[in-house]
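Narrative progress, year one. The postdoctoral researcher (J.K.) led the effort to move from monomer predictions toward full complexes, under supervision of the PI. The following entry was the first complex the group processed end to end, covering 413 residues in total.
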Amino acid sequence: MNANNNEVVALHGEGRLVGCSSDEEPGAKTTIFSQNVIPNQLVSNRSSEFIHRYFPLTTLESWNDWKWQLRNALTSIEDLKKIMNLTEKEIMAINNLKGRLPLRITPYFASLIYDSKPGHPLRRNVIPVVEELIETSSEQSDPLHEKSFSPVKGIVHRYPDRVLFTVTQICSNYCRYCTRSHSVGKLDKLGRQDFERAFNYIASHKEVRDVLISGGDPLTLRDETLDYILSNIRSISHVEIVRIGTRIPVVLPQRVTDGLISVLRKYHPLFISLHFSHPSEITEECAKACNKLADGGFPLGSQTVLLKGINDNVATMKELMHKLLMIRVRPYYLYQCDLIPGSGHFRTAVAKGLEIIKGLRGFTSGYAVPTFVVDAPGGGGKIPLLPNYVVEHNDEHIVLRNYKGVLCEYPEK
Ligand code: SF4
């Protein structure tokens, strides 16, 4: 049986929707869940148990429909309390979010954390704690000064040959450490005229050969809107590559539909930068979504923010990088956490990132080692950092330390 099959399959528990703003889509038939008939390739055991407990009348079709997932996202304390026990620190933080990055968690992602303890890495990604309300003087709402590099709404032009195009402020989940927490989640939509101005800006800057479409999360937009954006960018002859930055396979893998792939495939070469923070995010659903993207011919890279207590050790990072390679995602960047307001509880020392790179390089495949970067505060751009492998360097020679600590000499002449 698959998600397109409308047969009734079983019934457990009372017919009740929890944390939902709507029930089934008009016309949808009722599919009722049972552990032994839900196909693993569509809904993991973990998610099926969650559905069975909290969305017992929801059909497989609905659960696997990304629009249903967005409509039924958990956005309040009341929604969360129906599926999990919140701590005082979490409740206090959620109650004080006014004007800050909102709370939003898809039912799919909720199924990964509903029975978790407070320190669980995936839970910390999406549920605020009271430390988020503490700001320090080194933090800024726009630490990368994107506003001052924005010639027209939606465009950030910092580097010589490429632009960032933030096409939406909406995400399906809001990550508590988001660099763009100053703008993400706000109702500041680009209108048709804004899009036209952005296309015109790119068209009139012949040096722009690379456009990174980001947000918010661009894949929360409808296929038709993505088609409109991509066709306009692709019609500009000097744009060589287009990239999409998204966290969709992690938070809403149901969005990776055949229809989406068909739209995106029209615009090769199209690279997709995915955002992962922990190996537990790589579920069956996530792997399926990534494989589907890889089969669509999109080179996939990953970006990971170094987060205290979530992924700040060699073992976790190595496991994440290995799992990414297994789903055909090439580790790309490891970011030092940006200085956004209330991020102190997430930030590690820069030395921690260097220690992790040192623990990866040489000890595992080079493909599994991302580039560690600090996105310089004030808009200085990404600066790569490496552990110190150079012991001595002069006109005669360079003395290097290898991953085992052994010194090696290489002549300069
Ligand atoms: S998905 Fe990206 S843009 Fe959206 S909240 Fe997370 S980090 Fe920010």
